[in-house]
Structure formats: C-alpha cells, structure tokens
C-alpha cells in the first residue's frame, strides 16, 4: 500500500492540479486556477466547482464528518454534505470549506477562514468561523487605490515596479 501511495504522490506532482481534480472526480468547470497544495476530501465527487474559480495555496474542502467519538455511540455514523463553489469565486490561502457549504458566484473567502455557512453571491467573508465582512464591490471601492497594475507582468518587471514605488502606495494595516 505504501508503494501505491508513493507512486500516486509522484504522479500528482507531474500532472496539473486541474487535471488531478478531474481525475479524482471533482465536478470542475473551465478556466480554474488550483494550487498543488489543495486538500481534496475523500469524496471528491461531492464537490462541484464552477468556471473561473481560484483555489489558492493550502485550501481544504471537507465533505463529511463522523469521528470515532460519535461512532462510539453510533458505530456506523457518517454525515455528508456536498460543497458547491460557484463561478468566479476566490478562496484565499489555507481556508477550509466545511460540508454542505455553497460559496456564491463572485464571492471571496479571506485567507485562513473556516467557512461553516454558505456565502451569498458577491460577498466577502473571513474569520473563524467566517462571517460576512462586506460586498465585493465595497472591498474593491476600499482597495482600488492600492492597485499596482502588475497583473500580467513577468517577475522581473513586477519586482522592478514594486521596489521603485512610493511607500504610500502600499497597503498598511
């Protein structure tokens, strides 16, 4: 069994994360960006992901719950929930999506969030447990001033631009 697992781990390093998701049974739309460190559930066929979705580093999707503490009382206990991530959604680094959750179209999940309830279309959530923070439009309005226009630049051009910008143009918390 260890040999098979080892071969599997080598294989997923070679194939793209999108192809891997499809191979294991995730219902996946087109033009999605998925990082290699994505943590898929043991029931990937219960996950549906729309088009143009970004799943960033370390995201974990969960489709079931049923630990031994419950199975002590109900030996065959296992509860499942489908996860749906709609078109144009963004899931930040190391966020966890719990069973039964739907992430709405164009919604954003902040890095490190634990999403225990469905997220409406066009909303931003964050925290543990994740809560509504604002709409995507409000987020954009507050942050448009920090747009550095680096998307599409190669690494050298991006580095040059970022290292020569005035300090007041960067986000500060």
Keyword list:
173 residues, UDP N-Acetylglucosamine Acyltransferase, domain 1, 6-stranded mixed sheet, 4-stranded parallel sheet, 15 strands, 25% helix
Task: Walk me through this protein's architecture.
- The longest helix is centred in the first third of the chain and has 13 residues, at 2-14.
- It contains 5 helices and 15 strands.
- By secondary structure, the chain is α/β, with parallel strands linked by helices.
Describe the secondary structure blueprint for this structure.
Elements: H1 2-14, H2 17-24, E1 27-28, E2 33-34, E3 47-49, E4 54-55, E5 60-61, E6 64-65, H3 68-71, E7 79-80, E8 83-85, E9 90-91, E10 96-97, E11 102-103, E12 108-109, E13 114-115, E14 123-127, E15 130-135, H4 136-143, H5 155-164
Parallel strand pairs: 1-3, 2-4, 3-8, 4-9, 5-10, 8-11, 9-12, 10-13, 12-14
Antiparallel strand pairs: 6-7, 14-15
